[in-house]
Structure formats: structure tokens, C-alpha cells
Design brief:
By secondary structure, this protein is an alpha/beta fold. It is about 30% helix and about 20% strand. It has one domain: 3-Layer(aba) Sandwich (Rossmann fold), CATH 3.40.50. The strands form 2 sheets. The protein has a 6-stranded parallel sheet, with helices on both faces. The chain has a 3-stranded antiparallel sheet with strand order 5-6-7. It is globular and about 45 Å long.
Length: about 240
């Protein structure tokens, strides 16, 4: 495989691509060509299409990175031939035929992560609980901006099954925030372990893509190096 110089970053629900700014800056400084997907969060198909559209523009192999709901998106979109490896950042990791919602079954609830749903089926994180549930280690002013600029997600996406699990064919890495209040820690560990991901654990909230940007960038950097040499036989399947 050719050297991997491309990275594609996929955000999750209730956020947009701007949260990747620091990860972007670190990787660009290291010589990577970094692209950021802006998910519309209107349907699973729309988010996958937005990601594939960016992958089509890559000039060679890429590491595809997803945060939270973005993990489901990269699981499907990662089948793209330009994808050499997957990095899951406190992310959902369903298998083919599974929905995102099924990943929560059997795990503890997350009372600090409070979602309000509008009449048309879109979910927002409740503003007065946003910092506690999403960004506990972000300063108050920055957390308020994230809360007020959040992008609602069509809640039906969590009941849509993925059709292909790219992690079965591509090497995978996972970064888990040990203070994440959006997911039960056991759930994050289960998903990452099930796919045979190389796991990095770091103190941080669900907003680790902002607060632990250096660690996230380091994992992406390692993935870009290691994916070149990872044989297909070493991939979970």
C-alpha cells in the first residue's frame, strides 16, 4: 500500500465539523492532507453520502475517523476503496445488520446525557445539561457556545441498520474517553474490543476530540503508519 497522507474526519450528532479544528491543525502541521465532513444529520443515508462524497475527492489512501454517531457513519462509508483504516473516537461501532440503538442494549443508562426530541423527530441535547453530558472538561464559555450551536439529529438514524461493517475488512483503532457521560464505559469497551481495535484510553469527556486533540491526533498518526503494514489476516472478521 502507498504511504497514507490523507485523513477524513467525521463528526457526530449534536455537533459539526468545526470541533475537529485542533486535531486538524496538529495533523496538517505533521504533513497530512485533512478533510472534514459536514454531516447533515438528517438521515443515515445522507450522512454516509456526505462522507463518501469527501472520500471520492481523496488522491490516495486515507484514514477515516468518526466521533460518536460518526462511528456508525464510518462503519458503512469505510467500505470505500480509498479507506485504509478506521479510527473510532468514543464512537458507536455496529456490525452489519445492527442498528446504532442496539449497541446500548444491556448497558447502564447515561442520566447526564439528556436528549429532548421535537415534534418532527429531531433530537437536541438539553442546554442546561449539555456541559455535564457532552463537554464536562470544556470551559464554561466554550461549552455554552457548543450547546447553542449544536446541530439536531434525526433520531430515526439510531434505528437504521448498517449494511456493511468496514471494520471487518479494514484495521481499526479506538480512542475511549474514560469520563464520557454519553455512553456507559462498559459499552465503549465492548464495542472496541469486539472489533479487535487497538484501544487508547484517555481522561476526558465526550468532547475528547476537542480536549484531547493531541492524543486523538497521535492515534490517527499511528494508524496512518500502521495501516500500511497491517495484513488482511490481522483484521477482525
Amino acid at each position: 500500500m502507498a504511504e497514507i497522507n490523507n485523513v477524513v474526519l467525521v463528526h457526530g450528532a449534536f455537533a459539526d465539523g468545526s470541533g475537529w479544528r485542533r486535531v486538524y491543525e496538529i495533523l496538517v502541521a505533521r504533513g497530512y492532507r485533512v478533510s472534514i465532513v459536514q454531516n447533515p444529520l438528517t438521515s443515515f443515508a445522507d450522512d454516509v453520502a456526505a462522507t463518501v462524497r469527501v472520500l471520492d475527492l481523496q488522491d490516495g489512501p486515507a484514514i477515516l475517523v468518526g466521533h460518536s454517531w460518526g462511528g456508525t457513519v464510518i462503519t458503512e462509508a469505510g467500505a470505500h476503496p480509498n479507506v485504509a483504516g478506521l479510527v473510532y473516537v468514543s464512537a458507536l461501532i455496529p456490525d452489519a445488520g445492527e442498528t446504532s440503538g442496539q449497541q446500548y442494549e444491556g448497558f447502564a443508562p447515561t442520566p447526564d446525557f439528556v436528549i429532548d426530541v421535537t415534534e418532527d423527530g429531531f433530537g437536541y441535547l438539553r442546554r442546561d445539561a449539555f456541559r455535564a453530558g457532552f463537554a464536562a472538561d470544556v470551559d464554561e464559555a466554550a461549552a455554552a457556545f457548543l450547546a447553542d450551536s449544536q446541530v439536531p439529529v434525526n433520531m430515526s438514524v439510531f434505528s437504521e441498520p448498517v449494511t456493511v461493517a468496514a471494520w471487518r475488512e479494514k484495521p481499526s483503532w479506538a480512542v475511549i474517553a474514560t469520563d464520557d457521560k454519553a455512553f456507559d464505559q462498559a459499552m465503549l469497551e465492548h464495542m472496541a474490543t469486539r472489533i479487535g481495535a487497538d484501544i487508547t484510553r484517555v481522561p476526558g469527556s465526550h468532547a475528547l476530540f476537542i480536549t484531547q486533540a493531541e492524543t486523538v491526533a497521535d492515534v490517527i498518526d499511528a494508524a496512518a503508519t500502521e495501516a500500511v503494514e497491517t495484513p488482511a489476516s490481522a483484521v477482525a472478521g
